Amino acid sequence: MTLGVAILEFLFWAIEKSFNYLKEYFFPTPELPDEILDAIEQEAHDFVWNMHRVGDEPEMGEYYRVLNYLYHKKYTEHFSK
Question: Model's pTM, two decimal places?
């Protein structure tokens, strides 16, 4: 019984992976141009470093949170037109 459930789980996982691969192949997810990505990275860098002017080093997690927020904001602006 346990082996059957494991085989079914694997089968459903393989079908889902195959479907996602084919969907991405035929309908690729649009990506932002490199110029916009560079601007987002620079804006996130400037924002995080301006927050930490006192002297302590900013954490990488803060940079990634700001970068992620700005990326999603620009992505929706760029592709919602």
Answer: 0.68
Q: How many CB atoms lie within 10 A of CB 40?
A: 20
Per-residue pLDDT of the chain (81 residues; tens, 9 = 90+): 889 999 999 999 999 999 999 999 999 999 999 999 999 999 998 888 887 776 677 778 888 999 999 999 999 999 986
CA distance 46 to 69: 14
Which contacts (CB < 8 Å, 24+ apart) does range 52-56 have?
Answer: none
d(CA 72, CA 51): 21
* Distance from C-alpha of 50 to C-alpha of 44, rounded to nearest angstrom: 10
